[in-house]
Automatic annotation (TrEMBL), chains A, B:
Keywords tagged on the record: Membrane, Transmembrane, Transmembrane helix, Transport
Compartment(s) where it occurs, according to its Swiss-Prot or TrEMBL record: Membrane
Organism: Oryza nivara
Name of the protein in question: STAS domain-containing protein
Keyword Transport in annotation: yes
Listed GO MF terms: secondary active sulfate transmembrane transporter activity
Length: 656, 656
């Protein structure tokens, strides 16, 4: 097909604007024949239908569809729950080779990170490793992202420790603290499962992207500050996470006894990891260098400490790490105790943050590989894996951004790489835990520190400032909230600013004067298009809010009345373009009714153009359609304006 | 001008629908010549301009307007502040006669009501009378409503007593309680003045009509229950206002000693007032009968008690009422004490509720008399009058609905009726307070009770249920909150439900498929107009939210992608009608960008029709206009569809 310079039906030679819009004979057949349809909108679905519809969708039940038998239903549900049933048939040796390499690379990064994040979560190192075993295995059969790497992550580890510490101090009663961790993990899984099942995925959107950027940045700095304990080899430290408390604690501790050997080991290996990462970035082929740098650091530093017996000179070491794979933790989950409500609150925050991170990670890599990820299915899988995890000594797992990037770079094909990784971690748990005895604590701090720069996104903050000041405010609110308050305060500030933004947007009186584009039936905002002409004697306005309600209806009415009374002589009719109004409440109805009455008092006719079906429905219920007159509802603004112009004689008829 | 059966430009004979929309040659000259204007929207006004604009408006300053000299400015400000400067020139004797009669009728109702409401506010009777002197006088020179009757009202009296009681118990330390009352009154005035000056009148709209209906109903029942104390002649009573506490307190007290004589007097005069009101309603000429019934009841019952010395047999009497007009209370206002913050909170609630009532009363009567009331000016006047009141021993005054109705029925012409009323009350304060010694307390209860039915609006509740279930929920929330919690709980519930309503409305994925009305350039919702035809291979959708933001953008994107992938073969282009979107945040931008990318992956072209200037502005900043391509932005949906149809060949060009 040849290229057309102008879209079909557009003739540049006829678009010459006529001098006077009224003079041009509008040749478009306006929908007069359909105007009677206007007032016969569809019935509003009942509340009951809305609710049952949600459940039907949740269970994918299509009711009376004949092609749809029970076995097909069961199979479709199973395939929905276990995507592995879809792809195992096409799995082959070539895929496995890729997945094996990716899985091994992933494991070499996972083992040191898991141990580090466990200390961040104030748990013994083995719990981090446990969390890299069961959740990845469960996700491998239930999840649909091919690239995501499952396991403990920094932000969720911080969230857990900072919030559960308020219930119990882990240094005082570690057994009870663990009990709380498993309970929170179980509830997190339940929430995530429920979100997915009932398609409440939109709840995750409540934390806007801007809020997340700020939160992540703040949390990264807080995590970094927490690492000062390990890096400086301090024994006493604050339980609080805000900058002020941590700085104070460091200041106090540094003036007591501390051992610079820890800093030396930590910083030198931190440099080593960063250098390796730089090489990995520069030469794409050597990406594995950055992936194995942490495990290499652990091995070298452990060897160094063992050889020099530096632990006798003040270098803090991990000491005993229990060997053996995950034990059951079923009996540790305590839903009946007095802390269930508190745990549920923490679990809700963890569930949302973990899902936000997992969905963001999954989506960004699925987009690269050109397939779509169903957010609700992902949530069900995440829920499954955290419930299973909580029963086998794991804490909350989710998709890690840094490890997913490594997995992807290593060429993973399916979730089998997660299985390989989990198997490798299991072997390590059985055989290598004894070797970790002499691993210095500061090396874990440096591994965590090296993962933080990825969480701070300055570029995005600049973008927010440039494009949307309110989003920038949300971002800074959550950033400063996390930094100077706590994670909960940061999240609350972000939520508050975000919702305030929606409400402010609804409040601002949104109404614009329209003018006709010369020679057409197109009516546009006169501010946006200065070339349009306002029709004399007819004030044409568009209500630019989708919900005409108590916060904006009276200011919109006032604004229109202001325009009318400012130039009272000029206008004989007012046309309201209601196309933008999707819904209205009784205050909106009252404002329209008052507007109609006040205009009638001034001898001005009111016409309504392009009302939506919900608006028509409510106006009918409130008898406002009769009040304004059925004849004054129009399908287009053009028709309404023409009718108003033709009505000059009728003005005197209506008056209050 | 002769009557035209069809509006100009509409030819019924040409509206015959063509069979195939594509086949008909669209003869309307589409605005191609103006399409380049689309991407050159006006600049976004800076934050600084927005703020200075608000102040300029507040002080009515028009800057460099030449006709506008300083003296004109001062005069216009003065006339704005003192509407009396406008109308005193045309005032005449005939007006005065009407106002005199209305003022005297009003006073006969005001005196007993003021005494009753003072007891409701837990103050001595004279404070109610004081409040009927200064505020009406101040309002008379500053207010612009001609009919409103100013003074103490039931709801605000209840609000004051129920909230200040939490600071100090009036039966324990009445002097300190009064101090708090005057402080709250002063701050209420300051808030009201500030609302009016800075044009924050919209803040009053935050309490939606539905919430007010529920709140008033609940408060009326609560006030009624409080009257049981006076009616039953009880000495001990609860300070709490909820139904459960009051019922318990009555139950306990009734089982101790009480005097049925009080009930007898109260009930018989309650019947008398109701009967008089019935007569007043039935015979419009006798409206004054209902207006003087309360004062008549007070006189008769006082005489009865004095004659029979019933106070010695258990009938509770008012006893001493201080004589003399308002004393200064300047030194009683305590803004430095520890309770200033608490007082400010109470004052904010009182200011909003008092303004809501005053503006509602003022507007409903100004509408009857056919003039417009400026809400902001009214707020300034209310602020003035409460500040002045607080300095002269008055508590919060506002417009009373029942007394305004009497004032109107008595034929008032201007605010001079309020002056007459205040003067009469002053005379009563000087001369008649001694006569009130024997007035039974139960008669005050019956006067308050008789004013309550007007506050309960069952008809309106039915209307809310019929038209808008969410508004009904708001109404019931505030009703039950006041009834079973407290006034603050009721108001909080109402606010919460109201704002939740706005947010829920924003969340719901609002996107509709459009179809072309055969033979026209009109595109409508296919659900609302089943006669329209969807264009084959082009999916035309309208985003029906005015703020594309984090809570709805991803679900809107998902919904569109769902439609596209459900019938992947069918669509080659997607046209987004963005006319409803007034603004968007960075999440909205990200969703559009993702949508464009995902569609490109499927080889589907995306076109954007009718974007608003703020949307264009932000899309430009985010470089999304370049991403989608300037050629894919259109002024109308019709153009976009034609361009998509013409583009069949170009599909293969773009792919991820």
């Amino acid at each position: 097909m040849e290229f057309q310079p102008f879209p079909q039906g557009v003739h540049p030679n006829t678009s010459e604007p006529a001098m006077e819009p009224m003079a041009s004979e509008p040749s478009v057949p306006i929908g007069t024949a359909f105007a009677d349809l206007l007032l016969q909108g569809p019935e509003h679905p009942s509340l009951w239908n809305d609710l049952t519809g949600m459940f039907r969708k949740a269970f994918r039940w299509r009711g009376a569809d004949k092609r749809f038998t029970l076995s097909v239903y069961v199979m479709s549900v199973l395939q929905g729950l276990f995507p592995i049933l879809d792809w195992w048939k096409t799995y082959n040796l070539k895929f496995f080779r890729s997945d094996l390499m990716a899985g091994l690379t992933l494991a070499s990064l996972s083992i040191p990170q898991s141990i580090g994040y466990a200390t961040l979560a104030k748990l013994d190192p083995q719990y981090g490793l446990y969390t890299s075993v069961v959740p990845p295995l469960v996700y491998a059969v239930t999840g649909s992202s091919r690239e995501i790497a499952i396991g403990p992550v920094a932000i969720v580890s911080l969230l857990l420790s900072s919030m559960i510490q308020k219930i119990v101090d882990p240094s005082v009663d570690p057994a009870f603290y663990r009990k709380m961790v498993f309970t929170v993990t179980f509830l997190t899984g339940v929430f995530q499962f429920a979100f997915g099942l009932f398609r409440l995925g939109f709840l995750v959107d409540f934390l806007s992207h801007a809020a997340i950027v700020g939160f992540m940045g703040g949390a990264a700095i807080v995590i970094g500050l927490q690492q000062l304990k390990g890096l400086l080899g301090l024994s006493h430290f604050t339980n609080r996470t805000d900058v002020v408390s941590v700085t104070k604690a460091v200041w106090v501790s540094v003036h007591e006894t501390w051992h610079p050997e820890n800093v030396f080991i930590g910083c030198s290996f931190f440099m080593f990891i960063l250098a390796m990462r730089f090489i990995g970035r520069k030469y794409k082929k050597l990406f594995w260098v950055s992936a194995i740098a942490p495990v290499l650091s652990v091995a070298l530093s452990t060897l160094f400490v063992y050889a020099t017996r530096a632990d006798k000179h003040g270098v803090k070491i991990i000491q005993k790490v229990n060997s053996g794979i995950n034990a059951s933790s079923v009996e540790q989950i305590d839903l009946k105790g007095g802390y269930a409500a508190e745990c549920a609150k923490i679990a809700l925050v963890c569930a949302v943050i973990a899902l936000t991170e997992a969905v963001a990670v999954g989506r960004s890599f699925s987009a690269i590989n050109g397939y779509r990820l169903d957010g609700n299915k992902e949530m069900v899988a995440m829920g499954f894996m955290n419930i299973a995890g909580s029963l086998s000594s794991c804490y909350v797992a989710t998709g890690s951004f840094s490890r997913t990037a490594v997995n992807f770079a290593a060429g993973c094909k399916t979730t089998v790489s997660n299985i390989i990784m989990a198997a490798t971690v299991m072997v390590a748990l059985e055989l290598l835990t004894k070797l970790l005895y002499y691993t210095p604590v500061s090396i874990l701090a440096s591994i965590i520190l090296s993962a933080l720069p990825g969480l701070i996104n300055v570029q995005e903050v600049c973008f927010l400032w440039k494009v949307d000041k309110m989003d920038f405010l949300t971002c800074m609110g959550s950033f400063l909230g996390v930094l100077f308050g706590s994670v909960e305060i940061g999240l609350s500030v972000a939520l508050l600013v975000s919702f305030a933004k929606i409400i402010i947007q609804s409040i601002w009186p949104q109404v614009e004067i329209l003018g006709r584009l010369q020679g057409t039936e197109i009516f546009c905002n006169v501010k946006q298009y200065p070339v349009v002409h306002e029709t004399p004697t007819v004030l044409t306005v568009r209500i630019e809010t989708s919900f005409l309600c108590f916060v904006n209806s009276s200011s919109i009415k006032e604004k229109i009345m202001g325009w009318v009374t400012d130039e009272r002589e000029a206008f004989r009719s007012v046309v309201l373009d209601m196309s933008n109004v999707v819904n209205m409440d009784t205050s909106g109805l009252a404002a329209l009714e008052e507007l109609h009455k006040e205009l009638a008092c001034l001898g001005i006719q009111m016409a309504i153009a392009k009302p939506g079906w919900q608006v028509i429905h409510k106006m009918k219920l409130a008898r406002l359609v009769d009040g304004i007159g059925e004849g004054w509802f129009f399908l287009t603004v053009g028709e309404a304006v023409e009718a108003c112009l033709a009505n000059k004689a009728g003005n005197a008829l209506e008056c209050c």
